[in-house]
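User: Predict the structure for this protein chain, please.
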Amino acid sequence: SGYASGLAAGNSILITTHGIFHYLKYFFAIFIYAAFFRNFAEFKNVFRMLLIIAFFLTAVALIQEIWAIIFRYILNKNIGDSGMYILRGATVGSWRLGIYRAPSFIGHYNILGLYCLLMMTIYLSTAERIKYSVPLSFFAGVFFSVSRMIYLAALLITGVEIYRRKWIMIIFFIPLAVMLFYMRALPDLNVGELIKGPVAQSEESIAAESVPSLEQYRIKAREKGLEVWKDNPVFGVGPGMFGSEIAFQYNSPVYGEYNFDQALNWFQTLDQFWPQVLAETGIIGTGAFAGLLITLFYTFARYATRITTDDVKGLFTGLAIFMPSIIIFSLGGILNHPPILFTYCALAGMGLGSTAAEDTHMEPLNY
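Assistant: Here is the predicted structure, written as structure tokens:
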């Protein structure tokens, strides 16, 4: 469908190929890891290492949170002058509801929150004996994101876990529900502004002068994406021509045609996945990509019900439970984040490769 879009628009085969690869590059990890991981014990070793990394990232986020709160509310100083490299240049956009949105070493608070949510979901589905300290630690990373998308995904996963287990996971559900209600009622609240201190004021003024409003940009980007799609409804303008880093890299002429150059220089992407897919590949490509995600979910859910080995079943159950979180995140951001999509597809490949190699016992399908 991607090549059909590029051909219909008369685009360069190089840009079209690069644009298609940009959409699918992390999904290729499923095949690569399925080819090399042939024993489920190898998955356990890798996932144990990923858990250690996730703990480290969460610990760094906690240090950042404490550091930022001390500098802003106690020392009354700009956190960008705190001496911590990863906090430099932080603006008022890094705060919400008085909480610093810690990015850890992943580089963005939303990605940290979603990564912790991914690790928590797979852990809860595969651990033989659950230690409550593990999901609680990952919940801290989810909380620090202060993101409505991440909180909504966490609520969904928590609800599923409560339904499956009916145990202590209820302690996660209550604070998340309260926070979602609070953020819905006061979406633009910044508790730091209530202090009227010089730090909050200086950071807000710096942000206003140097960076355009992200919310305004997203609205404009969505409108432009839909405008491009309405003019090219079936096949779009072709992969790599509007919305992705590839289009910015090749200086796509479509931006000039739709007067979208100036705003794009700040972010280089639309920062919204589905308007980009619609604009670049039209109804055909959007339907194909949606079909890919649905097929993956169906595959994982099908394996989770057919496999009789508990640990393998747990992995596919976790992958199926987390898929809606990826879809939710794609509604308000870009999809191709390596810590999330690459890790997710790699874990899927490990499970599929191990299942095929070990001839895991499966229940027969009933037609």
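The beta strands are 95-96, 99-100.
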